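Ticket #227: bound-state structure for calcium ion.
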Amino acid sequence: MAKPTILIVEDEPAIADAICYALETEGMQTRCLHAGEAAVALLVSGQFALAILDIGLPDVNGIELCKRLRRNCDVPIIFLTARDAEVDRVVGLEVGADDYVTKPFSPRELTARVKAVLRRTQPRQDQAPANSVFTLDADRVQAGFCGQSLELSRYEFLLLQVFLRRPGQVFSREQLMDLVWDAPEASMDRTVDAHIKNLRAKLRAVNADLDPIVTHRGLGYSLKEDV
Ligand code: CA
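RESOLUTION: The complex was predicted; output attached.
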């Protein structure tokens, strides 16, 4: 099997070198950029298995870069963030990143995250394209189901977006809190349940038979893979 090639976009040479070394030791190929603008064209070309993006880049903010990429590219992305603020994490994941690490981090920790994301995302390319009964327009915050547009609240929309990125994956309530809510510690499991219930009711109003959200008792929720 070909070695996966990882693009690293990081302006601090010492950090970039440490990441390249750690990934190459694990049998991956790397390419490094010290600024963001050139990354978009490279990533859209489809030759990279994953991208590691620093949020604080000299020419463009990593989050903006990720948003731009997500319009026409599905490459898995791990953010590097220097700020430990919760908002960075939530924003990072909301814009379509797959994971993040907070600086300072050990190259070993980052390598483990890279491997985990690759494991999770690589089989996806072999599967049928995601759920065709749903449509999702992240820029307009609009979702559709079985050809009808849904009137979703912000949280219902974000929940559906999380599910659609990983059909079949079971998310615990805690994970959904982290991925969707701005201030997870202020909420409770029941908040997730309430929003799932509303989302289900809206989907059922469109199509009563499909019921695509599955409850896993004691675990959480997932989206059916085969609807
Ligand atoms: Ca930086």
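RESOLUTION NOTES: The longest helix spans residues 189-206.
TICKET STATUS: resolved
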